[in-house]
Write a structure and sequence with these properties.
This protein is mostly helical and 234 residues long. It is built from ten helices and no strands. The two termini are 30 Å apart.
């Protein structure tokens, strides 16, 4: 802050100070001086259109942009479904449970379609061989057990459960909201270029930047609405 102050002329600082005093005194539209002015960053749709219009020389699949966009959309949907699951009350009604289950089934269909298309989009690469190992998120560890329809185990039952699992090779069913989506960003660092998928990594990065721009735009809009309500209540 001090470095910024030193780089600005005293005359400019005096003008800003006068405008601030005027805004604090008159309020209303004079508070617009606090509005952040910046160039609008390209949205995810803008970047998607640009990538589809000018494919790179390495680009091998015309549908890879749509596949990447769908993957990012699915990851957003996973967050929404996970939130819906966590918000189920202890005494959830059949309607509430059915609504969440419908969301999970719809998400499962999208996830399966995306995974099926991954083989062609990633040139038949054995994704699991080149992916960064993921640490599973233990939602059950910090959420009440009723969110998952699981009765808490006492000490004796826990021991019996451990013995059962050790004796049997059981593969747990992963809910669709916790499935790891196959995306270029899941590849180990630097592995994308090594296996000839550097263009996919770059395209996903650009789309994610557009996604971040969209999120910031929505945040600015929400803050703007709050500012309007604040001014109306002055």
């Amino acid at each position: 802050y001090m470095e910024l102050m030193r780089s600005i002329s005293e005359d400019q600082i005096r003008k800003w100070s006068d405008k601030e005093l005027q805004a604090l005194r008159l309020r209303g539209k004079h508070l617009d001086i606090y509005t952040t002015k910046s160039e609008k960053a390209p949205s995810m749709a803008d970047i998607q259109l640009s990538l589809m219009s000018t494919p790179s020389a390495e680009h091998g699949h015309s549908g890879s942009i749509s596949w990447l966009t769908a993957g990012i959309s699915i990851e957003d949907a996973q967050n929404l479904v996970r939130e819906a699951v966590c918000q189920l009350p202890t005494d959830a009604t059949a309607t509430q449970k059915a609504d969440v289950m419908a969301k999970q089934l719809a998400l499962q269909s999208k996830v399966q379609k995306h995974q099926d298309e991954a083989d062609s989009s990633m040139d038949g690469l054995d994704i699991l061989e080149h992916c960064t190992p993921l640490e599973p998120i233990d939602y059950i560890g910090f959420l009440p057990s009723h969110y998952y329809g699981i009765e808490p185990l006492d000490g004796e039952d826990q021991d019996q459960e451990d013995e059962y699992i050790e004796g049997e090779d059981i593969e747990g069913v992963v809910p669709p909201e916790d499935v790891c989506i196959w995306m270029p960003s899941k590849l180990k660092l630097g592995r994308g270029k090594a296996v000839g998928l550097g263009y996919l990594v770059e395209e996903e990065l650009q789309l994610c930047q557009g996604q971040a721009s969209d999120s910031l735009a929505r945040l600015r809009a929400a803050l703007g609405n709050l500012a309007i309500l604040y001014r109306q209540n002055l």
